[in-house]
Amino acid sequence: MKKTLLAAFCALMLGTASATAAPSVNGSTGLINTPSADVLHSGQFSLGYYNLEDGGVGVFNMNLAKNLEVGIAGFRYDSKADNTFLNAKLSLAPETVLTPGIAIGLEDISDERERTGYIVASKALPFGFRIHAGVGDGRYDGFFAGLEKTINPVSIITGNSTFPATTLIAEYDGKDMNYGARLSIVPGLKIDAGWRNHDAYIGISFTK
Predict the structure, then answer these.
(1) Which residues, including other chains, have CB under 8 Å from residue 175's CB and lie 6 or more apart?
(2) Which UniProt keywords apply (predicted)?
(3) In terms of residue numbers, what domain contains 64?
Protein backbone atom coordinates (compact mmCIF):
# COMPACT_ATOMS: atom_id res chain seq x y z
CA MET A 1 0.00 0.00 0.00
CA LYS A 2 2.81 2.40 0.89
CA LYS A 3 4.58 1.66 -2.40
CA THR A 4 1.37 2.33 -4.33
CA LEU A 5 0.85 5.67 -2.59
CA LEU A 6 4.48 6.63 -3.19
CA ALA A 7 4.21 5.78 -6.88
CA ALA A 8 1.02 7.81 -7.21
CA PHE A 9 2.63 10.77 -5.40
CA CYS A 10 5.68 10.67 -7.69
CA ALA A 11 3.46 10.46 -10.77
CA LEU A 12 1.49 13.44 -9.52
CA MET A 13 4.61 15.49 -8.85
CA LEU A 14 6.24 14.75 -12.22
CA GLY A 15 3.07 14.38 -14.27
CA THR A 16 2.00 17.97 -13.75
CA ALA A 17 4.83 19.22 -15.96
CA SER A 18 3.96 17.05 -18.96
CA ALA A 19 0.25 17.65 -18.48
CA THR A 20 0.55 21.44 -18.72
CA ALA A 21 3.56 21.85 -21.05
CA ALA A 22 2.72 24.22 -23.90
CA PRO A 23 4.29 27.16 -25.73
CA SER A 24 4.02 30.57 -24.11
CA VAL A 25 2.83 33.64 -26.01
CA ASN A 26 6.46 34.52 -26.72
CA GLY A 27 7.17 31.06 -28.14
CA SER A 28 9.26 29.08 -25.67
CA THR A 29 7.63 26.36 -23.57
CA GLY A 30 6.26 28.05 -20.48
CA LEU A 31 3.35 29.87 -18.89
CA ILE A 32 1.80 33.04 -20.37
CA ASN A 33 4.59 35.57 -20.84
CA THR A 34 7.37 33.66 -19.06
CA PRO A 35 9.32 30.46 -19.76
CA SER A 36 9.50 27.34 -17.63
CA ALA A 37 12.50 25.02 -17.25
CA ASP A 38 10.75 22.46 -19.49
CA VAL A 39 12.16 21.70 -22.92
CA LEU A 40 10.80 19.49 -25.66
CA HIS A 41 12.27 16.00 -25.80
CA SER A 42 13.68 14.14 -28.79
CA GLY A 43 11.15 13.94 -31.61
CA GLN A 44 8.74 16.39 -29.99
CA PHE A 45 7.37 19.60 -31.47
CA SER A 46 4.75 22.16 -30.50
CA LEU A 47 2.75 24.71 -32.42
CA GLY A 48 0.11 27.20 -31.50
CA TYR A 49 -1.65 30.47 -32.11
CA TYR A 50 -2.57 33.23 -29.65
CA ASN A 51 -5.08 35.95 -30.43
CA LEU A 52 -4.02 39.17 -28.69
CA GLU A 53 -5.74 42.51 -28.23
CA ASP A 54 -3.60 44.17 -30.92
CA GLY A 55 -2.99 41.23 -33.27
CA GLY A 56 -1.84 37.64 -33.00
CA VAL A 57 1.18 35.38 -32.76
CA GLY A 58 1.92 31.99 -34.29
CA VAL A 59 4.52 29.84 -32.53
CA PHE A 60 6.47 26.71 -33.45
CA ASN A 61 9.06 24.85 -31.35
CA MET A 62 11.02 21.66 -31.86
CA ASN A 63 13.72 19.58 -30.23
CA LEU A 64 16.90 20.25 -32.20
CA ALA A 65 19.36 18.25 -30.07
CA LYS A 66 19.51 16.61 -26.67
CA ASN A 67 18.02 18.97 -24.07
CA LEU A 68 17.82 21.79 -26.65
CA GLU A 69 14.58 23.41 -27.77
CA VAL A 70 14.47 25.99 -30.57
CA GLY A 71 11.55 27.82 -32.08
CA ILE A 72 10.05 30.90 -33.67
CA ALA A 73 7.25 33.25 -32.71
CA GLY A 74 5.75 35.38 -35.47
CA PHE A 75 3.92 38.47 -34.20
CA ARG A 76 1.47 40.12 -36.60
CA TYR A 77 0.05 43.42 -35.36
CA ASP A 78 -2.89 45.53 -36.49
CA SER A 79 -1.23 48.92 -36.13
CA LYS A 80 2.55 48.47 -35.79
CA ALA A 81 5.46 46.64 -37.40
CA ASP A 82 5.47 42.85 -37.29
CA ASN A 83 8.19 40.88 -35.49
CA THR A 84 9.56 37.35 -35.70
CA PHE A 85 11.44 35.99 -32.70
CA LEU A 86 14.00 33.20 -32.87
CA ASN A 87 14.25 31.48 -29.47
CA ALA A 88 16.42 28.78 -27.92
CA LYS A 89 16.34 27.06 -24.52
CA LEU A 90 18.77 24.51 -23.05
CA SER A 91 17.96 22.26 -20.10
CA LEU A 92 20.83 22.18 -17.60
CA ALA A 93 19.17 19.80 -15.12
CA PRO A 94 15.93 17.80 -15.36
CA GLU A 95 13.27 18.14 -12.72
CA THR A 96 13.06 15.28 -10.21
CA VAL A 97 10.84 14.56 -7.23
CA LEU A 98 13.32 16.33 -4.95
CA THR A 99 15.10 18.87 -7.17
CA PRO A 100 13.92 21.57 -9.60
CA GLY A 101 14.53 21.57 -13.31
CA ILE A 102 16.88 24.32 -14.48
CA ALA A 103 17.23 25.82 -17.96
CA ILE A 104 18.86 28.77 -19.67
CA GLY A 105 17.47 30.48 -22.72
CA LEU A 106 17.64 33.31 -25.20
CA GLU A 107 14.62 34.99 -26.77
CA ASP A 108 14.56 37.20 -29.86
CA ILE A 109 18.09 36.14 -30.78
CA SER A 110 18.17 38.46 -33.80
CA ASP A 111 17.19 41.40 -31.56
CA GLU A 112 14.18 42.48 -33.63
CA ARG A 113 12.56 43.96 -30.55
CA GLU A 114 14.61 43.17 -27.42
CA ARG A 115 17.08 40.30 -27.11
CA THR A 116 16.54 38.62 -23.73
CA GLY A 117 18.60 36.04 -21.86
CA TYR A 118 17.40 34.21 -18.77
CA ILE A 119 17.84 31.32 -16.36
CA VAL A 120 14.77 29.65 -14.86
CA ALA A 121 13.96 26.90 -12.37
CA SER A 122 10.71 24.90 -12.17
CA LYS A 123 9.48 22.56 -9.44
CA ALA A 124 6.28 20.59 -8.92
CA LEU A 125 4.79 20.77 -5.44
CA PRO A 126 2.11 18.67 -3.71
CA PHE A 127 -1.59 19.08 -4.46
CA GLY A 128 -1.17 20.09 -8.11
CA PHE A 129 0.93 23.20 -7.57
CA ARG A 130 4.03 24.03 -9.60
CA ILE A 131 6.32 27.01 -9.14
CA HIS A 132 8.68 28.73 -11.58
CA ALA A 133 11.24 31.45 -10.87
CA GLY A 134 14.04 33.02 -12.82
CA VAL A 135 16.12 36.06 -13.62
CA GLY A 136 16.83 37.68 -16.96
CA ASP A 137 17.74 40.85 -18.77
CA GLY A 138 15.87 42.51 -21.63
CA ARG A 139 12.12 42.36 -21.23
CA TYR A 140 12.32 40.55 -17.88
CA ASP A 141 14.35 43.36 -16.36
CA GLY A 142 15.42 41.18 -13.41
CA PHE A 143 13.21 38.73 -11.53
CA PHE A 144 10.21 36.85 -12.92
CA ALA A 145 8.08 34.08 -11.40
CA GLY A 146 4.92 32.06 -11.88
CA LEU A 147 2.63 29.68 -10.04
CA GLU A 148 0.42 26.97 -11.55
CA LYS A 149 -2.38 25.06 -9.87
CA THR A 150 -3.84 22.01 -11.59
CA ILE A 151 -7.45 21.66 -10.50
CA ASN A 152 -7.87 18.04 -11.56
CA PRO A 153 -4.49 16.29 -11.12
CA VAL A 154 -6.07 12.93 -10.22
CA SER A 155 -7.37 12.54 -13.78
CA ILE A 156 -3.77 12.57 -14.99
CA ILE A 157 -3.22 9.31 -13.08
CA THR A 158 -6.61 7.57 -13.27
CA GLY A 159 -8.22 9.02 -16.40
CA ASN A 160 -11.61 8.82 -14.66
CA SER A 161 -12.49 12.51 -14.71
CA THR A 162 -15.39 13.73 -16.85
CA PHE A 163 -13.92 17.22 -17.34
CA PRO A 164 -10.53 18.26 -18.71
CA ALA A 165 -7.60 18.89 -16.40
CA THR A 166 -7.42 22.65 -15.96
CA THR A 167 -4.39 24.60 -14.84
CA LEU A 168 -4.74 28.07 -13.36
CA ILE A 169 -1.74 30.33 -13.91
CA ALA A 170 -0.53 33.50 -12.20
CA GLU A 171 2.80 35.07 -13.14
CA TYR A 172 4.92 38.17 -12.79
CA ASP A 173 6.85 38.80 -16.01
CA GLY A 174 9.20 41.47 -14.70
CA LYS A 175 6.74 44.28 -15.41
CA ASP A 176 3.13 43.05 -15.08
CA MET A 177 1.01 40.42 -13.37
CA ASN A 178 -0.69 38.06 -15.82
CA TYR A 179 -3.45 35.51 -15.16
CA GLY A 180 -4.79 32.64 -17.23
CA ALA A 181 -6.22 29.14 -17.47
CA ARG A 182 -4.97 26.22 -19.57
CA LEU A 183 -7.38 23.41 -20.44
CA SER A 184 -6.10 20.01 -21.61
CA ILE A 185 -8.78 18.97 -24.10
CA VAL A 186 -7.14 15.78 -25.40
CA PRO A 187 -3.52 14.63 -25.00
CA GLY A 188 -1.32 17.38 -26.41
CA LEU A 189 -4.14 19.78 -27.30
CA LYS A 190 -4.64 22.78 -25.00
CA ILE A 191 -6.75 25.91 -24.96
CA ASP A 192 -5.50 28.99 -23.11
CA ALA A 193 -7.33 32.14 -22.08
CA GLY A 194 -6.66 34.94 -19.66
CA TRP A 195 -5.36 38.43 -19.00
CA ARG A 196 -1.92 39.46 -20.28
CA ASN A 197 -0.33 42.91 -20.11
CA HIS A 198 -3.71 44.42 -19.16
CA ASP A 199 -5.50 42.86 -22.16
CA ALA A 200 -7.39 39.63 -22.77
CA TYR A 201 -5.92 36.81 -24.85
CA ILE A 202 -7.00 33.38 -26.07
CA GLY A 203 -4.97 30.65 -27.73
CA ILE A 204 -4.73 27.07 -28.84
CA SER A 205 -1.65 24.83 -28.96
CA PHE A 206 -0.64 21.27 -29.72
CA THR A 207 2.40 19.45 -28.41
CA LYS A 208 3.41 16.04 -29.72
Answers:
(1) 139, 141, 197
(2) Signal
(3) 2-207
- The 10s digit of each residue's pLDDT in 66-94 is 999 999 999 999 888 899 999 999 999 99
CATH number at residue 137: 2.40.160.40
Q: State pLDDT tens for residues 27-70.
A: 999 999 999 999 999 999 999 999 999 999 999 999 999 999 99
The DSSP bridge partners found for residue 167 are: 150, 182
197 CA to centre of own chain: 17
As for how many domains the chain has, the answer is: 1
State which amino acid sits at residue 51.
Answer: N
